[in-house]
Specification:
By secondary structure, this protein is α/β, with parallel strands linked by helices. The protein is built from 12 helices and 7 strands. The protein has a 7-stranded mixed beta sheet with strand order 3-4-2-5-1-6-7, with helices on both faces. Helix 1 crosses helix 12.
């Protein structure tokens, strides 16, 4: 479906070595040896990535939190943007009831005197900060309709923030409305969590169509950074077959890392911590560290 050159945001065969002695991964491809990320001497400008899928419950928020925390663990400065009116990202980072927040992304989008610095809060993870959201954001789509350049409002709001971070991860809402279009317009890449389940696979065609329209009309530099298989259960034939079909459909765009289904993720959400903090030696924590190494290798290829 895509070539293997760096311009497509896909690893070339020369980028990393494949160890033939290693077992095949869940995708039945040789598992590459991704290098340990090198420390950075300076930070910024950030790569902005939209974590996007119009289907709910596929692991967007879980991936945003835990990939961000793993990147921060590797010494990267990360900004998470809660771009869902449900405020799940804010809740998942232990911020309590997001309705109690005085200033959120909503204010940053619609009030000229509110800058990102007025909204950003700490997450408890060194090197990772958050732009929180709540239900007020649900009214933004209606309000933005009448704005000039409405697709670029988020891009403008984040313009000065990129100099302070290495990566900005935007947790998109489960729809393809104006807020998601804003996230795609502001981003350089899209990371697509895709549940290893038949109906999740069926719905991804509409997302791809939307991404293509954004590439053609709004943001020509937007690329698909990768498709991430989530909620994988190797014990079931169904999830194995779906993951195989995902690889058939998207080829090298599918990450080698696969996120397994585990109760530790909801437990970590209840605790308001990334899995790398809540249970640092768990399979889930190690999976997101592996994903962080893989995406850093891909992003280095297109830098």
């Amino acid at each position: 479906m895509t070539s293997t050159n760096g311009a497509d945001g896909v690893l070339s065969s020369a980028t990393i070595e494949t160890d033939p002695s290693r077992a095949l991964g869940p995708t039945q491809r040789p598992v590459p040896v991704f290098p340990e990320p090198e420390p950075l001497d300076e930070h910024g400008p950030a790569r902005i990535v939209a974590v996007c899928n119009q289907k709910g419950g596929v692991g967007k928020t879980t991936t945003t939190i835990n990939l961000g925390a793993a990147l921060a663990e590797f010494g990267r400065r990360v900004l998470l943007v809660d771009f869902d009116p449900q405020g799940a990202l804010s809740v998942g980072l232990g911020k309590g009831d997001p309705r109690q927040l005085d200033v959120t992304v909503h204010n940053m989008l619609l009030e000229r005197d509110v800058e990102w610095e007025d909204v950003v809060i700490e997450t408890g993870v060194d090197g990772m900060e958050l732009l929180p959201s709540n239900i007020d954001l649900s009214g933004a789509e209606v309000q933005l309709v009448h704005e000039v350049g409405r697709e670029y409002i988020l891009q403008g709001a984040l313009k000065s923030a990129v100099e302070h971070y290495d990566y900005v991860l935007i947790d998109c809402q489960p729809s393809l409305g104006l807020l998601t279009i804003n996230a795609l317009a502001a981003s350089e890449g899209v990371l697509i969590p895709l549940e290893c389940e038949y109906f999740a696979m069926r719905g991804v065609a509409l997302l791809m169509e939307t991404i293509e329209k954004v590439q053609g009309r709004i943001n020509p530099s937007l690329v698909i950074d990768g498709v991430l298989g989530t909620m994988y259960d190797s014990r079931t034939l169904h999830t194995r077959e779906v993951l195989g079909r995902i690889v058939e459909a998207f080829g090298d765009q599918v990450f080698h890392t696969v996120i397994n289904r585990t109760v530790r993720f909801p437990d970590a959400t209840v605790a308001g911590e990334p899995i790398t903090f809540f249970d640092p030696n768990s399979m889930g924590a190690n999976a997101y560290r592996a994903l962080a190494r893989e995406v850093l290798a891909r992003w280095a290829e297109v830098a």
